[in-house]
C-alpha cells in the first residue's frame, strides 16, 4: 500500500536524521520500522535515486542522508515515491454520446491536479529536521 | 480502488446536476460512467446516506440531487465516501526501544491530518455547479 510506503520512508529518513552522520544499515532500519529488510532496501533504492540518501557499500557500509535534514522536506520524499494519488480521473473509455462522460476526464484531471498541488504545498512546509526535533522532544 | 470511487461519484453527481430536476436510474448512470449498475447502486447508497441524493422508489423511480448543485462541493462528496488516505501512519506496533519508532505514529498522524486538511480545503472550493457548467461549456 502506498500510504504505508510514504510513512515508512518518512520513518527511515527521520531515523537517519536522528543518527546524524552515522551510517545505518537496512537491518537496523528494518528493526526500527518493524518490517522486513527487503522492504527497506527497495525503499532505499528509490530514496537514493531521488538523491535523498547516499549508500556506502561494503561490510561496515550503510546509508546516510545525502544532505542536511533541514534541506529535505516531506514533498521531496513524497515525490521520490511517485505514489498513486487518492484522487485521480477514471481510466475507462468515455461513453461517446454522453456529454458528461466526454467532459469528465478533463474535469477530474483538473481536480486531481488541484488536490495534489494543495497536498504538496503542505508537505513542502514540513522539514525533516522538524520531525527529528519532535522525536527528541518526545523522548526528552 | 478509492480514487476510482471518488471520480465515479463526482461523475454521477455531475450527471444529476446536468439533468436538473429529472430522475435518472442506475442503468443510465452506469452507461454514462461506463461501469456496472451494481457499482452505481452501491455508490448511490453512500451518497443517499450523506444526504447528497434522494431516491424515488418504483418502476419509473430514480435518483436526483437532494439539494441545489451550488450547495454541494467536492469536499461533501469526498467525505461521503470516507476514502483511504494516501498519507497515513503505519499500523504496525512500534519497536519499544527505538525513540524514532515510538514517536513516529504521532508524527505521521499530524502529517496525515495536515495533508487531509489541505486536500479538503481545496475540494471545498470546487462546487458541483461549477463542474456542470464546465460540461456545458465543453459541449457548447
Name the biggest interface. Answer: A-B, 57 and 57 residues
Q: Could you report the average pLDDT of chain A, rounded to the nearest whole number?
A: 91
Q: How would you describe the shape of chain A? A: elongated
Structure class of chain A: mainly alpha
Counted beta strands of chain A: 2
Can you tell me the residue ranges of chain A where pLDDT is under 50 for at least 5 consecutive residues? none
Q: How is the largest sheet of chain A built, in terms of strand order? A: 1-2
* Gap between N and C termini of chain A: 33 Å
* Rg of chain A, alpha carbons: 19 Å
CATH class assignment of the domain at 2-86 and 127-138 in chain A: Mainly Alpha
Series of H and E elements of chain A: HHHEEHHH
Quaternary structure: homodimer
Helix count of chain A, per DSSP?
6
Name the CATH architecture of the domain at 2-86 and 127-138 in chain A: Orthogonal Bundle
Give a short account of the largest sheet of chain A: 2 strands, antiparallel
Q: How much of the polypeptide of chain A forms β-strand, as a percent range?
A: 5-15%
* CATH fold type of the domain at 2-86 and 127-138 in chain A: Arc Repressor Mutant, subunit A
Helix content of chain A: 55-70%
